[in-house]
Design brief:
The chain is built from 2 helices and 8 strands; from the N terminus they run βββαβββββα. It has 180 residues and is an alpha+beta fold. It has a single domain (3-140), classed as OB fold (Dihydrolipoamide Acetyltransferase, E2P) (Beta Barrel).
């Protein structure tokens, strides 16, 4: 089966599992490093052309071949699914290798590029194309906080922890119910 190398344009990562030594093990005991990469239609053209080339070389013009991308109906963006069971190599925005202990935390919204290999596969009667991750170039990492929501809200008037009497609704709630 023929293969091709790919280097994606810069895009936005969704649900990345890219931290060194921490693959996603939810559905695979060995784990996978993976992400969904969102690209604008004009940026996605190069990737879709490469995928179509591998598809036609391996399967002809058959339409029943699974491809590793979807189009978001609301935004028109292409969402590419890229994964590997091997930890990728990491590079900064200038193309310099990032030492493993200095790889930034990457959450959804991280801007990055991905590179790897486009593979054709046949398994259990299903045919498809997959994007195998080899390296990521971190352009603008998005790191999460503690994940508990602290610091997300500005102060407003209303209920306050420790206030006496608990919660009191404005107006007479019983009178409002009688109107129904």
């Amino acid at each position: 089966m023929s293969k091709a190398k790919f280097v994606s344009p810069a895009g936005t990562a969704q649900y990345p599992w890219l931290q060194p030594g921490r693959p996603d093990t939810a559905f695979d005991a060995e784990g996978k490093y993976k992400l969904s990469l969102r690209l604008a239609p004009k940026d996605a053209k190069h990737m879709t052309n490469l995928i179509d080339g591998v598809k036609s070389e391996n399967f002809g013009a058959k339409d029943n071949v699974h491809t590793p991308f979807d189009v978001d109906e609301e935004t028109g963006e292409y969402v590419f699914k890229i994964q590997s069971k091997y930890q990728p190599k990491y590079f900064d925005a200038k193309g310099n290798p990032i030492p493993i202990d200095q790889v930034p935390t990457m959450y959804s919204g991280t801007e990055l590029r991905a590179s790897g290999q486009i593979d054709a596969y046949t398994a259990g009667g299903k045919k498809g194309i997959s994007l195998r991750l080899a390296a990521v170039q971190v352009i603008n990492p998005v790191s999460g906080g503690s994940g508990d929501g602290a610091g997300d809200f500005d102060a407003v008037d209303g209920y306050e922890v420790g206030s006496s009497g608990g919660f009191e609704p404005a107006g007479d709630f019983d009178d409002e119910l009688e109107d129904f």
